[in-house]
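Q: Here's a chain of 191 amino acids. Please give me its 3D structure as tokens.
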Amino acid sequence: MGRLFRGVLGKGGVLLLAWVAVAPLLLPDAVGESPPATPSPGPEERARFEEAWQRWRSLPPEERVRIRGNFERWQRLSPEEREAFRERQETLRRLGPAERERLRENLRRWQTLSDTEREAIRRSHRSWQALPPDERLRLREEWQEFRDLTPEERRNLRETLRGMREGAGPSPRWGPGQVPPPPGRRPPGGP
């Protein structure tokens, strides 16, 4: 379980778990009553709590604030939201190292984006999700066909499309009245 949170929250992940377990014992409730009596933990559990407590105390104050904020957000989640979070964590845990690193890199890139850029991506994602499944499948297939083209074929296709957008018509590579073939398909007798 520690690896699960460590991967998501960094070095403070295990500390978050400890905070979740220990906080009710350390924080008085709103009406000033003492915490409920709980059975005394065993030696192994006590050693884990002591280790977590020492790590907590060794964290810089700003890291403690961040972890407390995560804990408070966790406490506000509904049971359904917590379950969804756990399921996402399990999915991430099952990913291979290369896939996890790709996700981390995407997260780093996301964090460098401006609010305007992030909102543009969110709008694009909502538009994508609004498409019918068959349209999304068709677009994925076309994208894969584009990716399968050689760099020269991609460049030629981009030039053709740019010319069509600018109203210049098809590239001189194609004869009058001819339209370039769909991505991934070669014209008969063509390059």
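Q: Can you summarize the key feature?
A: The chain has two domains: 2-28+40-126, 149-186.
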